[in-house]
UniProtKB/TrEMBL annotation, chain B:
SMART domains to which the protein is assigned, alphabetical: REC
Domain Response regulatory: from-to ranges: 3-119
Organism of provenance: Thioflexithrix psekupsensis
InterPro entries registered for this protein in UniProt: Bact_response_regulator, CheY-like_superfamily, Sig_transdc_resp-reg_receiver
Keywords for this protein: Phosphoprotein
Record GO biological process: phosphorelay signal transduction system
Keyword Phosphoprotein: yes
Domain of life: Bacteria
Modification sites for 4-aspartylphosphate: D52
Record's keyword annotation contains Membrane: no
Pfam families according to UniProt: Response_reg
Name of the molecule in the record: Response regulator
């Protein structure tokens, strides 16, 4: 049976990433010197689960790595270590390494082994128990067990004497026999010797013993596997009757060697029975056996060189070899001869008629094992690259059950409404009009709820984004030598997944800035009469259909004077101009202002403040700043709830209908033609109060026939995007409604000035105008106009 | 077809188990920790319980012990999922009354073989 693992793999990755986040935050909560049992257990479980999952998908090196981390955690758990900061740091590093490995494995790309090894060495440095090598970690060994592919028929005698209590562990002998029967031909004989009298019989007990004969292409390993679970609850003897029967035409030496070795590992049976029993039991075997024995009797006994054998053994088995051979010491010389010569092992030292002394070179065995592990690992890595499918960018999201339940509930109601409308429509009569209206109202309500529910599925709590900050703040404050307390609130506020993802970088930038430049060093803070520990507060909440994210610190605040100076020196501001704080804040977002600036207070790493604002604006949001010198700075970010639906204003141009985002509209007005100035006969500006606004005639831009061309007859819609305004000339405004955005790129291609499309109630397609894009278009098409407008503005002001 | 209860705090492990077992036409119910599994087991008579060892609330061994005290589960097969190859853990599992164990990572075919082995 083969199972498509892609989906499960994906789930494994997601779950692992998530649990690594938990592990990280748990580590950050962990106090030095005090091993909180719950935290340690929770951390342990994360590593444990990842190890288990990685094993399923044969990410062997990850299993090994996780195993080492797990060992350390286990030692901490059992109180062998007290937690040190160094230990926490190494475990945090472990989180990073695991995350990196997962990311690379998910992308089917090789990962940086050196960082894995560095971390591994640090982890091992803490370990009390000596760990040999991760490649011999238990799980790796399990998969390293070679597969036996033998074709010869074998005969096994199995004596199975279960304890009376066997049934209480849920093991049923019949099931075991059924399993055996799958391996080959099985004959079962029950021994009733221990059966008590009826009065003494306890139904729950097992009184029977069994002797089983199994014939087929079966390895000892297979039989042992079947009895694995009852090992401690029974007396079990497995005898290989065919060990001696392997005839000269045996295809490989290995088989013989293996069988012989195995038969010598029978523990509870004295060697003579090995020879005598099968002869009695199986007449047919008899002659062959004697032939085999007599044939080899002549040979001198030889010393075993076990180092030649391991190829056919699982590591565990090979390590047991010494013990097995002690048992075989009681074997009579003749039989020993049979065993050893069958193994066709090179003569190293003749021993006269004495039991062979096995010489096991441990190093050699380990070498052999090591080699095999190597081989297996190579095999799996090849397997890995073969099974890995390139991970698609479109990842999945985890949705809470109650959201799904809501959805199902609403769909149920929708079905009811539908059947109700069905009934009304049958033999429709005007008497039923009221009923029809009720039905339609209900349908409308259902639809609205359904829409809301579906949208909620895309919503994720902002904690997904916030959760990374404890670590970031911890690391940064350590490297900056500052003391910072991070406070987070409103983490459960939900946000559209896309918005959340795109907000990730801007938030990191703002948090970094706050730590780097906002919050002062402990000494400075104390000097300023503030507590030594700075406070960084991340706060999310709903406000009027928007999500607000506040990032505030109690640091030094902006140095307005320096911003002012910088603005003047970079030619953005006239030295004599009066300027408000708000206007100065505006400069912070000016491209190049932060990065090229001498004002280290504002310089950031990674994205600059201009990029932060651009990202937020591209999401339809806004950002503003409030800063009080000496008291701290607060950034307020306002974001739309979702990107998939927008509140739209329908506008008509000719026979076409376009949609504008309601958020971008500032006002709409009838045009007073006296306030329109035509520049160079083409470009027009409209004087709106103290402002000059470029006019963009939509019909001319999009070449729409039969549209209103006289400005007085249409409407001017003032829209804002990217901090600029234009007046959009349209025929008329229609209704406002919620618009489900369909991507134009995926369905057609990207068009300048259009951000998407939607389907209207009557089934027609309407295009959604991209406000920022339109402003850009208007600028490229009317550059002169803008210059003139600016000049006029100056004239007006003076 | 048997009705099987699986208990593991890792949802990918649960999904993996569930996937494999339902593919073999078994009916599966899931619990994410030991005490939830115990509650389910009391309400429904499962033919087989497969449980992880490391779980919050009630761990796998605790679950096995608790189940063995229920008349309905006195002789039912209970398999433990374990990555520990430590014989001590297995011994402890046997003492608790576990039927057997499945080593994580498991091969789907091996899991089904183990299930078949205890269910007959």
């Amino acid at each position: 049976m083969s199972i498509d693992m892609t989906e499960v793999r994906q789930l494994f990755f997601e779950e692992s990433f998530e649990s690594l986040d938990t592990m990280e935050s748990n580590l950050l909560d962990l106090q030095v010197g005090d091993a909180d049992k719950d935290l340690i257990n929770s951390i342990f479980r994360v590593v444990h689960s990842i190890k288990g999952g990685a094993g399923i998908f044969k990410f062997e090196s990850m299993v090994g790595f996780a195993h080492t981390a797990e060992t350390l955690l286990d030692e901490i758990r059992s109180g062998e270590h007290s937690v040190t900061q160094a230990m926490i740091d190494v475990l945090l590093q472990t989180v990073d390494v695991l995350r990196m490995m997962l990311t690379q494995l998910q992308a089917s790309e090789p990962y940086d082994e050196s960082s894995v090894n560095t971390c591994l060495i640090s982890l091992r440095g803490f370990l009390k128990t000596h760990e040999t090598d991760t490649t011999t970690a238990p799980s790796a060994v399990v998969s390293a067990a070679p597969v036996f592919e033998k074709k010869s028929t074998q005969y096994w005698k199995i004596i199975f004497k279960p304890d009376e209590s066997l049934l209480k562990t849920g093991n049923d002998p019949i099931n075991l026999f059924n399993e055996l029967a799958l391996l080959g031909t099985l004959t079962v004989e029950a021994e009733l010797d221990h059966l008590p009298t009826w009065q003494e019989l306890v139904v729950q007990n097992c009184y029977l013993n069994w002797v089983l004969m199994l014939e087929g292409n079966v390895q000892r390993q297979h039989i042992e596997e079947i009895f694995e679970w009852v090992e401690g609850d029974c007396e079990l003897t497995i005898i290989d009757l065919s060990a001696e029967l392997v005839s000269n035409d045996a295809p490989t030496v290995e088989i013989a060697a293996e069988s012989a070795l195995e038969s010598s590992s029978v523990e509870s049976v004295t060697p003579p029975t090995v020879a005598s029993e099968p002869i009695e039991a199986q007449g047919a075997i008899h002659s062959e056996l004697s032939a085999a024995v007599s044939e080899v009797v002549d040979c001198a006994p030889e010393t075993l060189e076990v180092s030649e054998v391991p190829d056919t053994f699982t590591p565990e088995e090979s390590l047991e070899i010494p013990r097995n051979f002690e048992v075989s010491e009681s074997v009579t010389p003749e039989e020993t001869t049979a065993f050893t010569s069958e193994m066709d092992i090179s003569v190293t030292k003749p021993v006269d008629k004495a039991p062979p002394t096995p010489k096991i070179d441990k190093a050699e065995v380990e070498d052999a094992l090591g080699l095999k592990n190597q081989a297996t690992l190579n095999g799996t890595s090849a397997h890995l690259s073969a099974t890995n499918t390139p991970s698609s960018e479109a990842s999945s999201i985890r949705v809470s059950i109650d959201k799904i339940d809501d959805l199902i509930n609403i769909v149920g109601e929708l079905v009811i409404t539908q059947s109700m409308l069905d009934q009304v429509s049958e033999n429709f009569d005007f008497v039923k009009l009221a009923q029809l209206r009720d039905g339609l109202t209900q349908l409308e309500r259902n639809t609205r709820e359904l829409q809301k529910s579906v949208m909620r599925i895309r919503m994720l709590p902002i904690s997904y984004s916030f959760n990374r900050f404890p670590r970031l703040v911890h690391d940064l404050s350590v490297s900056l030598g500052k003391k910072v307390e991070l406070k987070m609130s409103g983490e459960h506020t939900e946000l559209d997944k896309t918005v959340l993802e795109k907000m990730s970088d801007p938030l990191v930038h703002l948090v970094r800035n706050a730590l780097d430049h906002g919050i002062e060093k402990p000494a400075e803070r104390l000097a300023a009469g503030k507590p030594e520990k700075g406070l960084l507060h991340l706060h999310a909440f709903h406000q009027g259909g928007n999500i607000m994210i506040q990032i505030s610190d109690d640091g030094a605040g902006f140095d307005m004077k320096r911003i002012h100076e910088k603005a003047i020196s970079s030619g953005l501001l006239n030295p004599d101009d009066p300027v408000t704080d708000e206007q100065l804040y505006e400069f912070i977002f000016h491209p190049g202002f932060s990065t090229a600036s001498q004002i280290s207070d504002l310089s950031g790493r990674g994205v600059g403040m201009d990029v932060v604002r651009r990202n937020i604006r591209s999401l339809g949001g806004s950002i503003d700043i409030r800063s009080i010198p000496g008291k701290g700075t607060t950034f307020n970010i306002r974001l739309p709830l979702t990107l998939a639906i927008l509140d739209g204003q329908l506008v008509r141009v000719g026979e076409e209908i376009y949609i504008l985002s309601l958020l971008s509209i500032i006002e709409s007005l009838r045009v007073n033609s006296e306030q329109v100035n035509s520049l160079a006969g083409k470009a027009e500006v409209y004087k709106l109060r103290d402002d000059y606004i470029p006019v963009l005639r939509l019909y001319s831009l999009f070449n729409i026939p039969n549209a209103v061309t006289r400005l007085e007859e249409g409407l001017l819609v003032i829209i804002e995007g990217d901090g600029q305004r234009i007046g959009l000339f349209v025929d008329e405004l229609l209704s406002q409604q919620q618009i489900v955005i369909k991507s134009l790129e995926t369905n057609y291609k990207s068009v300048a000035g259009i951000s998407g499309a939607t389907i209207l109630g009557d089934g027609s397609v309407a295009l959604i105008l991209d406000v920022a894009g339109l402003i850009k278009l208007s600028q490229t098409s009317v550059p002169i106009m803008r210059r003139l407008a600016k000049e006029r503005e100056h004239e007006y002001q003076h | 077809m048997a009705s099987i209860l699986i208990s593991d705090d890792s949802s990918s492990m649960r999904q993996m188990l569930c996937f494999t077992l339902t593919a073999a036409h078994h009916q599966v119910q899931e619990a994410s920790n030991g005490s939830a599994a115990l509650e389910l087991a009391k309400r429904h008579s499962f033919d087989l319980v497969i449980t992880d060892i490391n779980m919050p609330n009630l761990d796998g061994l605790g679950l096995v012990r608790a189940l063995r005290h229920l008349p309905d589960y006195q002789f039912k097969p209970i398999l433990l999922l374990t990555t520990e190859t430590d014989p001590e853990v297995k011994k402890e599992a046997k003492m608790a009354g576990a039927t057997g164990w499945i080593n994580k990572p498991f091969d789907p075919d091996k899991l089904l073989a183990a299930v078949r082995k205890v269910l007959g």
